[in-house]
């Protein structure tokens, strides 16, 4: 991971938000797996990748990417719930047209099944150093500001407390008869982010949002990492 960071900062001494490949490579070093994804640079790439990820009956997602893009949905760069080849083709054409000239490529992912949308991340505090954050995610993150933080490195007890700390925590434990979500998966994720934060002082910010939590596991569908 340190080597990856050094190479990245050598190429871009100012740092900044890393590209999706660098993000994924860094998280891989700590065993943090996103949902599978692939680059598409033309319609048929997109259709093939989407078929692969949709499986029998699922849907696919396309996300346009260019350097400097941070809030994808605000830019209309995210196309959800694409259920067949025609929907994928239309969505690809639309983003290729709309973002012509700046597009690096389009990310193709499986559409995660419903669950609780959470946020997990790392920020550097000027005084305390790295904090691991956890809370309610999705597009409501900023509005509701329901998150909690612990100083890295997190002990096992910190991790357990952090999972229970946001106001939304009762939703995770089985709200109104629903089964509890994969709390062990969430604890493992926070512990891994803590290790990453401890190892990499150049990690300015890591933002995993949403992490979609269900009883049968967690799906990390959006990740960004800023180095400085
Ligand atoms: P950004 O945060 O940059 O706007 P995201 O990749 O988080 O872009 O996508 C915006 C929203 O779309 C997410 O908060 C989530 O609700 C939904 N979404 C994105 N990717 C998926 C996916 N693979 N499966 C299900 N929902 C998704
Ligand atoms: Mg997001």
Bound molecules: adenosine-5'-diphosphate, magnesium ion
Fill in the CATH topology of the largest domain. Answer: D-amino Acid Aminotransferase, Chain A, domain 1
Q: Roughly what is the average pLDDT, rounded to an integer? A: 96
User: Structural class, please?
Assistant: alpha+beta
CATH class descriptor name of the largest domain: Alpha Beta
CATH homologous superfamily annotation of the largest domain: ATP-grasp fold, B domain
- Rg over CA atoms, rounded to whole Å, is 18 Å
Unreliably modeled segments: none
Could you please describe the fold and organization of this structure?
The chain is an alpha+beta fold and 228 residues long. It folds into 2 domains: 38-110, 2-Layer Sandwich (Dna Ligase, domain 1), CATH 3.30.1490.20; 114-227, D-amino Acid Aminotransferase, Chain A, domain 1, CATH 3.30.470. It has helices spanning 2-11, 20-29, 43-54, 85-98, 141-144, 156-164, 169-172, 183-199; strands spanning 16-17, 38-40, 60-65, 78-82, 105-110, 116-125, 129-136, 147-151, 203-214, 217-220, 223-227. The strands form 2 sheets. Strands 1, 6, 7, 8, 9, 10 and 11 form a 7-stranded antiparallel sheet that branches. A 4-stranded antiparallel sheet has the order 2-5-3-4, with helices on one face.
């Amino acid at each position: 991971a340190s080597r990856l960071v050094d190479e990245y900062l050598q190429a871009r001494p100012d740092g900044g938000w890393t590209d999706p490949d660098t993000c994924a490579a860094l998280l891989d070093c700590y065993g943090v797996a996103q949902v599978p994804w692939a680059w598409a640079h033309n319609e048929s790439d997109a259709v093939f990748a989407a078929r692969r990820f949709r499986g029998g009956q699922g849907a696919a997602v396309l996300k346009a990417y260019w350097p400097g893009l941070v809030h994808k949905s605000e830019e209309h760069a995210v196309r959800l719930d694409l259920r067949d080849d025609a929907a994928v083709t239309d969505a690809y054409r639309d983003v290729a047209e709309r973002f012509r000239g700046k597009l690096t490529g389009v990310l193709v992912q499986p559409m995660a099944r419903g669950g609780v949308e959470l946020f997990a991340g790392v920020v550097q505090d000027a005084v305390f150093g790295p904090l691991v954050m956890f809370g309610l995610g999705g597009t409501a993150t900023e509005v509701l500001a329901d998150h909690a933080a612990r100083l890295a490195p997190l002990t096992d007890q910190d991790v357990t407390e952090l999972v229970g700390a946001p106001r939304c925590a009762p939703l995770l434990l089985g709200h109104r008869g629903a089964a509890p979500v994969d709390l062990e998966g969430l604890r493992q994720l926070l512990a891994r982010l803590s290790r990453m934060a401890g190892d990499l002082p150049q990690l300015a910010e890591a933002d995993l949002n949403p992490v979609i939590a269900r009883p049968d596991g967690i799906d990390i569908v959006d990740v960004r990492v800023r180095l400085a």
